Amino acid sequence: EVQLLESGGGLVQPGGSLRLSCAASAFTFSNYGMSWVRQAPGKGLEWVSTISGSGSSTYYADSVKGRFTISRDNSKNTLYLQMNSLRAEDTAIYYCAKVSSGWFNYFDYWGQGTLVTVSS
Amino acid sequence: EIVLTQSPGTLSLSPGERATLSCRASQSVSSSYLGWYQQKPGQAPRLLIYGASSRATGIPDRFSGSGSGTDFTLTISRLEPEDFAVYYCQQYGSSPFTFGPGTKVDIK
Fold first, then answer.
1. Is B13 on the interface with A (CB under 8 A)?
2. Is B32 helix (H, G, I), strand (E, B) or coil?
3. Which of B35, B96, B101 sits opposite A61 (nearest CB)?
């Protein structure tokens, strides 16, 4: 069964950095696009970023462009999100999600999420 | 950017009743690239419907999706106790891949 396990969340001060990881298993990782989606406390879902299977194409929401970087290591079946210049409004649960095929497609599997809190 | 609007914000129904949830897009969603997700408290979202009307693997047939262009609907034919949750629509035809604000289906 497909499994996605996020890690790396925690408390960070405004302006700080954090790197999230998502370990994937039970599918051929390099064949699928992957995404990050976040959810602020008590709020709805917000797409953050998507990366193609090879890692050659990346897409970002305007709210994180220039501050966040999505990447992947296909040899380790792991997805990353490097978050710099963090703001209070970045506080959220961050989910990694598998793209069903290609990279412009729906999310068929989701991890359980990791909480990022930006506060002084 | 395609903005998705969901209505109603909250739907209060009893088990066994029919639920009809609406998702409207600010511009046409290409190739019906519209999905629906269910989220229960403390859990990750779960895919229900993709391509506007195709049920995801393992989703009961009481869930159905319809629509095209800018108007989409998720219907739950007879609510089961486990169906009370928040439902989100999402378009994935163009970046940014936007979500609607959600419809909460709660017990009347």
1. no
2. helix
3. B96
Tens digit of each residue's pLDDT (9 = 90 or more) over A35-45 = 999 999 999 99
- Nearest chain B residue to A39 by CA distance is B44
Q: Do A35 and B100 touch (CB under 8 A)?
A: no
**Strand ranges inside chain B, DSSP E:** 4-7, 10-13, 19-25, 34-39, 46-50, 54-55, 63-68, 71-76, 86-91, 103-107
Residues 6+ apart with CB under 8 A from B72: B22, B23, B24, B25, B29, B34, B52, B65, B66, B89
Answer whether B45 touches A (CB < 8 Å): yes
CB nearest B56 (choices: A35, A104, A108):
A108
pLDDT per position as a tens digit, B47-96: 999 999 999 999 999 999 999 999 999 999 999 999 999 999 999 998 89
